[in-house]
Specification:
The protein is α/β, with parallel strands linked by helices. It has one domain: Rossmann fold. The chain is built from 5 helices and 5 strands. It has helices at residues 12-24, 35-44, 61-71, 88-97, 110-126; strands at 5-8, 29-32, 49-53, 76-81, 102-105. The chain has a 5-stranded parallel beta sheet, sandwiched between helices. Helix 2 (35-44) runs parallel beside helix 3 (61-71). The protein is globular. The two termini are 19 Å apart. Residues 4-121 form the Response regulatory domain. Keywords: Phosphoprotein. Pfam families: Response_reg.
């Protein structure tokens, strides 16, 4: 059984782009636009991999990473960010510090996403 990829992204453009890239790679994609909904999906799919946008309207991606790691210390999380007020580098370093396996700065392409997913799978093998 294939492990799903749960995408936590509030921007419809990016959700569509990421889903399209993952579909092309043969991934099973589950979509979420809020931290609470993503945490519910985590409970239903404890082995899932996550692609998590950092800047979200209510609870941010850092909050998701901290909570998801508390529920499952081996959670496989790819953090993504396009910037915001302080720039994506700051947010991605913060995500890394809180337990993201890897990070990607928006915009990214299929090859970069594929490489990041390979890193998530490698972290699964080491867990």
């Amino acid at each position: 059984m294939q492990v799903p990829v749960i995408v936590l992204e509030d921007d419809p453009f990016w959700m569509n782009e990421i889903k399209h890239m993952l579909d092309a790679q043969g991934e099973t994609v589950l979509q979420s636009t809020s931290v609470d909904a993503a945490l519910k999906l985590q409970a239903e799919h404890p082995d899932a991999m996550f692609i998590v946008d950092i800047i979200l309207p209510e609870r941010d991606g850092i909050d998701f990473i901290k909570t998801a790691r508390g529920l499952n210390p081996k959670a496989k999380i790819l953090a993504i960010s396009g910037g915001g007020r302080v720039g994506s580098e700051f947010y991605l370093k913060l995500a890394d510090a809180f337990g993201a396996v890897c990070t990607l700065q928006k915009p990214f392409d299929d090859a970069q996403l594929s490489k990041a997913l390979a890193r998530l799978r490698a972290s699964e093998a080491q867990a």
